Amino acid sequence: MVEKLISLSLRNRVIVLLIAAALFAAGIYSVKQNPIDAIPDLSENQVIVFTEWMGRSPQVIEDQVTYPLVSNLQGIPKIKNVRGSSMFGMSFVYIIFEEGVDAYWARTRVMERLNYAQRLLPQGVTPTLGPDGTGVGHIFWYTLDAKNMDLGEQRALQDWYIRLGLQTVPGVAEVASFGGFEKQYQIVLDPLKMQYYSVSFMDVMNKVKASNNDVGGRKFEMSDMAYIIRGLGYLKNKEEIEAIAVKQFDGVPVTVKDIGSVQMGGELRLGIFDDNGNGEVVGGIIVMRYGENADNVIKAVKSKMADLEKGLPEGVKFKVAYDRSVLIEEAIESVKGTLIEEMIMVSVVVLIFLFHWRSALSIIIQIPVTIAASFILLNAFGVSSNIMSLTGIALAIGVIVDNGIIMVENSYRNLSEHQNNERHD
């Protein structure tokens, strides 16, 4: 079989050269299309289900949220494992799928099963899917340089302007905000006044929730004109919250202001984000989607940040806290330099060893063709260009030329024996 293949190749050298040229061209195209990253993504193929039920203990979360979800998510096709974790007020369920399963197919199957499992959970508890990113998807961190703005205003700017803009960048799965204070209206109730007026906490909560709502009415026609009747009830400031009537006491409405006070404050925090000991800062984390090119996504994020910076208040700028593109570019350049050096050294050694430029050329030409063709397989198997994969290619250069050297030596030996036999005859 091998002899026939060699004989066929020798008789059809033009076809062999065309096939090699086609492989080289396809490999160059694959090099441009192959995702670039600094490190390989070895994380498991998983979908995260997050459920929040504030104020409940870990045991209650485990019994009423985590266990029902884990039990009902077991039957999804191509699942390898399901793991659950419960903590104060939160539940995490990790659905591990088999290798090779499409990430978005897996998310669709999990979502279908969650629609069924929803009825088993307590009222008002809704599970949500985590971002479609991987364990190495945190590719870019930034903070806001705003010395003349308080942390609450910075967090509002991050949540309602910057984050929404960056989420439109192709390849970004999530923009996670951190630091600062999330603004909220806080009602501080006086227990003695509540006892005097016979008002409970649930009374206040239900009335405030019911008052913060717009309602629609029917159409009203008058003089060939139609008017839409609406009830405008969205709260706009703390004075409107203070004026909400909770109940009646001796025929007189009891408002929120009568039993407490309303203030603007920040949500309870469990930690702070400090910038190298220079004080608290507000910022965000860019999470990349599955299978995206990290270098291209970071460039697109930087371009979008330059556009968003034009709309920031005066004196507010972006400050980069972590940029993986620096590591990516330096790592790739380092490996590329090593790759080129090895190609040159191997070529020189082959020339010196064989001392025949035509034979050496037939071997050396295999190096770029084989390296370019290897990127076709990298794309086919979803492997990115990273330190590990490029180093493997660099280490294989010596193996690439071994077969060519053996074939050339074998050809010379057979030709020499054939010539010696002709002389003796």
Could you give a short description of this structure?
By secondary structure, this protein is α+β, with helices and mostly antiparallel strands. The protein has helices at 2-11, 13-33, 58-72, 103-117, 151-166, 191-197, 201-211, 238-242, 256-259, 294-309, 324-354, 357-364, 366-380, 387-395, 397-424, and strands at residues 46-52, 79-87, 90-97, 128-129, 133-145, 172-178, 183-189, 215-222, 225-231, 245-249, 252-255, 260-266, 283-289, 317-323.
Task: Walk me through this protein's architecture.
20% of the residues are buried. A four-stranded antiparallel sheet has the order 2-3-1-4. The chain has a four-stranded antiparallel sheet with strand order 6-13-5-14. A two-stranded antiparallel ribbon has the order 7-12. The chain is of the alpha+beta class and 425 residues long. The chain is elongated, with a radius of gyration of 34 Å. It has helices at residues 2-11, 13-33, 58-72, 103-117, 151-166, 191-197, 201-211, 238-242, 256-259, 294-309, 324-354, 357-364, 366-380, 387-395, 397-424; strands at 46-52, 79-87, 90-97, 128-129, 133-145, 172-178, 183-189, 215-222, 225-231, 245-249, 252-255, 260-266, 283-289, 317-323. The protein is built from 15 helices and 14 strands. Helix 11 runs parallel beside helix 14 (387-395).
Low-confidence stretches: none
Report the sheet-strand fraction: 15-25%
**Largest beta sheet, briefly?**
4 strands, antiparallel
**Helix share of residues?**
40-55%
What would the principal axes of the Cα set say about the shape?
A: elongated
List the defining traits of the structure above.
425 residues, alpha+beta, four-stranded antiparallel β-sheet, 15 helices
